[in-house]
Structure formats: C-alpha cells, structure tokens
Specification:
286 residues, alpha/beta, Purple Acid Phosphatase, chain A, domain 2
Length: 286
C-alpha cells in the first residue's frame, strides 16, 4: 500500500480574535482496520497539534464474534491508543461504525479518543482555541432508531440486543442524519471545524453543510473515487459515478470542505489507480 502525506495551508475567511496564529491538524479518514504502522510513522515524524478522525475506523458493519465490535477488530484499539499518545485526538462516526453501541463508544473513549457524536467541544492549544464538532453518519442514526424500536418491543425478561439481527435496516439510506444541533454550533464564537464523514453532506444531500456558517468541514468516505483520471474520480459511495467530492479543497460562501482520499483501500478486490492513500495535514495561518 502506498501512503503519502498531503498538506494544505489555509487561513480564515474572517477575523477570529481567539484563534491561534498557527495550528496544524492531521486528518485521518477511512482507516478500515488497516495496517497502522505507516500512518503512525508519519504522525510521529510530524507531530500535529491535534488528530482529527473522520470515521470508518473499522471495515465491515457486522460483529465477527459475541463480544463488542471494537474489541473484535484487530489493530483498532492499539492504533487509537497510539494516536492519543501522539496528540489530542477527536473522531466522528462514519457509516462503518453504524452498529456501534454505547459500550463500543466507551471503549474508544477509554483509548483516549474524544468521540464527537452529534456534538462539539472546545480545543485549546497555545494562545487560542477552536471548536471541533462531529456529525454522525445517517447510517448510525438509522440503526440506532431500529435498535431502540426493537428493544422497546422486547419482553421485560429478554436481554438487551446490542446488534439486532446483525444487519442494517433496508431503508437506512432513506433516513437523514441529525443536524438540528448544527444550528447552535453555527452561533458559537470562534473558529469552527466539523468532522463529517460524508462529503456529499456538503452540497449534494441534507444537511447541505456548504450553506452553514462553519469554517472548515473535514470528510473522507469517497476513497478518492477509487480510480483517478485527469484529477477526477470514477466512483464513490454516496455519489455514484464521476463524483464531485473525492479529494482536495472545495469552497463555499462561509468556509471550506477538505476531502481525504483515505488511509486504506477497503475494496481488496478492486485496486486503486492513480489514487494513493494519504494522511492529510492542514496548516492554519491566522
């Protein structure tokens, strides 16, 4: 697997008094339970102020055993513990985390990761601070409703089902994510970063993040379009053929979207062509 480091240097589109003059973030997307060594080597050689993980840490939705999903996945917890040991680390929830229960998320938190599940937090470093939010995938929102509904219908003496039927409901793509909390997030003072696994949420599908007053949206999910020709991807989940958002920087009236090509190839039988995996660094200059 080829893995490169891609660096984008940006500045604010508006004056923000509390923003540090310089900040450096590493953006990790689509780990998919891959080999962590090359990723961690890059992070250790160029230590960022924070590590921002935009989802799809695991590969595959379904439990492989009777334990928690995150404990079944090889490499996952050691990788997260290593990230947290390098720099403060934050993550949002992607579609491959859709079946995770609260116990799974607690295990991730115990590894030192701040899980942003449709919520935000303030991150302070040096002479200033930023707000970091995490928008949860509609896949997870849908499965949680499905799980809650099923458990509410069980008899009192029946055990709680963490992963009902070990599958996703068939209508999962028809449901929107939960975005009402973004109304309050937009009103907050300071530089706002949103981890949103799905780049199609930028302007192709609700909640249309391009129109919100959010300074920087970070995404993955598109895997760089799988094959790249003349700088354009061929196919991406959620966008279909010839997708618009597969990598790079995209501009809106209030902020920017940066899409990562991802850390690993989840489609082992489909190679990536002209489309290396990447660790993205974002240098911010105020």
């Amino acid at each position: 697997m080829k893995l490169k480091k891609t660096t984008y240097t940006i500045n604010s589109l508006r004056h923000i008094p509390d923003m540090p003059e310089r900040m450096r973030f590493a953006v990790l997307a689509d780990f998919h339970g891959g080999d962590p060594d090359m990723v961690l080597d890059i992070l250790r050689k160029d230590v960022p102020d924070a590590i921002l993980i935009t989802g799809d840490l695991i590969n595959g939705y379904f439990p492989e055993g009777d334990g928690l999903i995150v404990e079944d996945r090889q490499n996952l917890l050691p990788f997260l513990e290593s990230c947290a040991g390098i720099a403060p680390s934050f993550m949002s929830i992607g579609n491959h985390e859709c079946l995770l229960c609260e116990e799974d998320l607690d295990v991730i938190r115990s590894a030192g990761i701040t899980v942003l599940d449709n919520e935000w937090t303030k991150f302070t470093t040096g002479s200033g601070s930023v707000l970091i939010g995490g928008l949860t995938s509609a896949y997870a929102v849908s499965y949680r409703r499905f799980r809650d509904s099923l458990n509410d219908s069980l008899e009192e003496d029946m055990p709680y089902e963490r992963y009902p039927f070990r599958r996703r409901p068939k209508d999962i793509l028809k449901r929107p994510t939960i975005s009402g909390w973004l109304d309050e997030f937009e009103k907050q003072e300071g530089y706002k970063i949103l981890l949103s696994h799905h780049p199609e949420y930028w302007s192709l599908r609700e909640p249309m993040l391009r129109n919100r007053k959010i300074d920087l949206v970070l995404s993955g999910h598109a895997h760089g379009g799988q094959w790249q020709f003349m700088g354009h991807g061929v196919l991406a989940p959620g966008q279909g053929f010839f997708p618009r958002f597969t990598h790079g920087v995209h501009y809106g009236p209030h902020g920017r979207l940066i899409v990562s090509r991802g850390l690993h190839n989840p489609f082992r039988c489909i190679p990536r062509l002209g489309n290396p995996c990447e660790v993205v660094y974002v240098n911010y200059l105020n």
